[in-house]
UniProtKB/TrEMBL annotation:
Record HAMAP family: 23SrRNA_methyltr_KL
Subcellular location: Cytoplasm
InterPro entries: 23SrRNA_methyltr_KL, DNA_methylase_N6_adenine_CS, RlmKL-like_Mtase, RlmL_1st, SAM-dep_methyl-trfase, SAM-dependent_MTases_sf, THUMP_dom
Record's catalysed reaction(s): guanosine(2069) in 23S rRNA + S-adenosyl-L-methionine = N(2)-methylguanosine(2069) in 23S rRNA + S-adenosyl-L-homocysteine + H(+); guanosine(2445) in 23S rRNA + S-adenosyl-L-methionine = N(2)-methylguanosine(2445) in 23S rRNA + S-adenosyl-L-homocysteine + H(+)
Protein name in the entry: Ribosomal RNA large subunit methyltransferase K/L
Family membership noted in the UniProt record: Belongs to the methyltransferase superfamily. RlmKL family.
Keywords: Cytoplasm, Methyltransferase, RNA-binding, rRNA processing, S-adenosyl-L-methionine, Transferase
Gene, per the UniProt record: rlmKL
Protein EC: 2.1.1.173, 2.1.1.264
Keyword RNA-binding listed: yes
Length: 723
């Protein structure tokens, strides 16, 4: 058992502290401590050890911008059982640090063979402290999880236990200016550490700072507080040391008063802090943080994209651009951000040459879109994600002029952009004449760029076809980067409006499962019909673009008819039938997701639920049981389905004969059945042509955006003979 005590100098005892900080910023924290005259330091992993007096403890708490917690170890000992943990904690002279009337909270970190979960370790330590005070005075302290008088930390590493008093009480990134539950994940002390690493500070000589994607304004507020010499601890009401027995209230108050008087006048300093963000919630959060930090009039934030904003820049004075852009943790998000990073790099090169630029990101591929050679990078953890903070000096020596000249586009990306522009130009008259809002602009025209690109108003929906195993994954990824970097420029679409998905064969319930939880819905129009489409959450969007002519055909034929839509998906064909004057419609599908979507589409177009109904059922079983008769039937079944909701596996090549005969039994004399499917090698059962009147209308069902892909579907009109 080893008890850690301050030095024996009763007048001014010294304490050995462990000051934790974000990983990667240990040297920044040490430099900060030295700047406050606290020089007796040693390095640790994610911490700096400091020997100092009580005034030094208060200085760390009040002035450190980088520290996470200030810990005072009071004992460490080895254990070989849970009982030894209890005995070791009970043996500490707790009366030197607290009284029985104080409230406590115990944080336990780490486990071993004897303490197998942290909750058990915390309970054993709590029992030991309680029994210590019961033995001393007959009273015991109460547990209070939030803001206790004394917070105790128990660290278990193999057989060694270290017990500490948490003098900060809670993480020191909580300055008090940002509301709890704020949307920004960037912690204040991490932001401050990166600013210091980038060269910002009280005497740095920099007077201009811009955050072009400012989020809730953390970089801006922290930078302003540094420049104005505002103590980051002044806004905090709760400190762990306030319930500690050795706390000196008078000394703390004197240091607080001194800190308040150190604040400088921003007008005299001529400082400029500017931020932009396109998200309304982010700007609202940043303005609230600025207000709570007392920096109104010092920091200016605007809801606009940095590309569109005219910043107030003094070209004669050096400054810093710093930002924490989105990282794109998933492949689709990553690819969608290529253009954003490229535009960010182009913007800093063209607007703030001679400045410093720091960017925090977890994605090395995206970082390479900045056409500047980084001087250094720092590995840090942000929100549990391993990131790097890249520092780019915006000097002629570091700027890749050849890349800038190409607008950060590789030759492959430029070639792809040229093809996109050519395709878009070719379709422009047709799109405008027919008021088409949703259409395909590219479909693997160039084999090495195996994607389909669909336009939904001012959005681009990109589907990557799964590459064969023979294709090098890195090469495929690089080509996808080129595709995503070309789209915004070639099609004049905002980079944030480009959505990527990987297309591969789906089966059973996979085709209905969510890819995302964003509920990214929008309303599009087609021949007088309104549809809800969702570009992010599912593999398909809710609207099959290749069937546009088929839906128009149904609309033209539907007047006065009883319409049946089998495998209805989102009932877009039923909406067209209603728009065309159908007397009634019935839409059948086995998916809850799609039948709910179908009902919303029908409701959106204000058709009567009484006459335009949706039913969830297995279409094959429904056909076997139904006795209703319809004048117009549309059937577009999947190529293959093994959903558990179906009574049997559906294979359209094998089963289409039975399926069509069942559907024709429900078709009135003189009626028409429109049958479509997407199986590329489909061959119609020859016997059907003997039993019914069959017309292949496939070639008539392609608009200009699909006329190059004649195998995307096959379509037939089937009637009873002699009808």
């Amino acid at each position: 058992m080893s008890t850690i005590l301050p030095t024996t100098d009763a007048e001014n005892p010294l304490y050995d502290l462990e000051i934790t900080c974000p990983l990667g910023l240990e040297n920044v924290l040490e430099a900060e401590l030295h700047g406050e005259g606290l020089t007796n330091t040693r390095f640790g992993e994610g911490q700096i050890k400091l020997t100092t007096d009580l005034e030094g403890i208060y200085k760390v708490c009040l002035w450190s911008r980088v520290a996470t917690r200030v810990m005072l170890p009071i004992a460490n000992f080895k254990i070989d059982s849970a009982d030894e943990l209890y005995d070791g904690v009970k043996a500490i002279q707790w009366s030197d640090h607290m009284s029985a009337n104080d409230t406590i909270a115990i944080d336990c970190h780490g486990t071993n063979h004897h303490i197998r979960n942290t909750q058990f370790g915390a309970v054993r330590a709590k029992d030991a402290i309680a029994d210590y005070f019961v033995g001393l005075s007959g009273e015991r302290p109460n547990v209070q999880k939030e803001q206790p008088d004394v917070r105790i930390a128990l660290r278990i590493k193999r057989e060694v236990v270290t017990v500490s008093i948490d003098l900060s009480g809670e993480s020191m990134h909580r300055r008090g200016y940002r509301q709890q539950g704020s949307m920004a994940p960037l912690k204040e002390n991490l932001a401050a550490g990166l600013l210091l690493r980038a060269g910002w500070g009280r005497e740095c000589g920099l007077t201009q700072l811009i955050d072009p994607m400012c989020g809730s304004g953390t970089f801006l507020v922290e930078a302003a507080m540094m420049s104005l010499d505002m103590a980051p601890g002044l806004g905090r009401q709760y400190w762990g040391f306030k319930g500690w027995k050795q706390h000196d209230h008078r000394m703390w108050q004197q240091l607080m008063d001194f800190a308040k008087n150190r604040k400088k006048d921003p007008v005299e300093l001529g400082l400029r802090f500017q931020g932009t963000d396109r998200d309304q919630r982010a700007i609202a959060a940043s303005r609230e943080s600025i207000k709570r930090a007392g920096l109104v009039g010092v920091i200016d934030v605007t809801m606009i994209s940095f590309q569109e904003h005219e910043f107030d820049i003094n070209s004669e004075l050096p400054g810093l651009v710093i930002c924490n852009p989105p990282y794109g943790e998933r492949i689709g998000d990553e690819m969608a951000l290529i253009a954003l990073y490229g535009q960010l790099g182009e913007w800093v090169v063209n607007n703030v040459r001679g400045w410093q630029f720091m960017m925090l990101t977890s994605n090395e591929h995206l970082a390479r879109q900045i056409p500047v050679r980084p001087e250094k990078s720092t590995r840090v953890i942000n929100g549990g994600i391993e990131c790097r903070a890249y520092l780019f000096p915006l000097t002629a020596r570091n700027i890749k002029e050849d890349v800038v000249a190409q607008s950060a586009m590789t030759p492959g990306a430029q070639m792809f952009a040229n093809r996109l522009q050519k395709n878009a130009k070719k379709m422009r008259k047709w799109v405008e004449k027919n008021k088409i809002q949703c259409y395909r602009v590219y479909d693997a025209d160039m084999p090495e760029y195996a994607v389909a690109i669909d336009i939904y108003k001012d959005w681009a929906h990109v589907q990557e076809y799964q590459a064969p195993k023979s294709v090098d994954p890195e090469k495929a990824k690089q080509r996808l980067f080129e595709v995503m970097s070309a789209i915004p420029t070639a099609l004049n679409i905002a980079e944030s409006n480009v959505i990527l998905k990987q297309r591969q064969r789906q089966s059973g319930k996979e085709q209905y499962e969510k890819l995302d939880q964003s509920k990214h819905e929008m309303i599009v129009e087609e021949y007088g019909c309104d549809f809800i489409v969702n570009l992010k959450d599912y593999l398909d969007t809710g609207l099959f673009l290749d069937h546009r002519p088929v839906r128009k055909l149904i609309q033209d034929k539907a007047n006065g008819k009883r319409f049946l839509n089998l495998f209805c998906y989102t009932a877009t064909a039923s909406v067209h039938a209603g728009q065309g004057g159908a007397r009634s419609s019935l839409s059948v599908d086995m998916s809850n997701t799609y039948t709910d979507w179908a009902r919303r589409n029908i409701e959106l177009n204000e058709f009567s639920e009484l006459h335009h109904q949706v039913e969830r059922a297995d279409c094959i079983e429904w056909l076997k049981q139904s006795r209703d008769v319809f004048d117009l039937i549309f059937m577009d079944p999947p190529t293959f389905s093994n959903s558990k909701k179906m009574a049997d596996v559906l294979d359209i090549q094998r089963d289409h004969g039975e399926l069509l005969r069942l559907a024709m039994a429900r078709l009135a004399k003189g009626g028409e059945l429109i049958f479509s499917n997407n199986y590329r090698r489909f061959i119609l059962d020859a016997d059907l042509e003997q039993e019914f009147e069959v017309k292949n209308i496939t070639n008539e069902t392609f608009d200009p955006d699909f006329d190059r892909n004649s195998k995307i579907h096959q379509c037939y009109v089937i009637k009873h003979k002699n009808s």
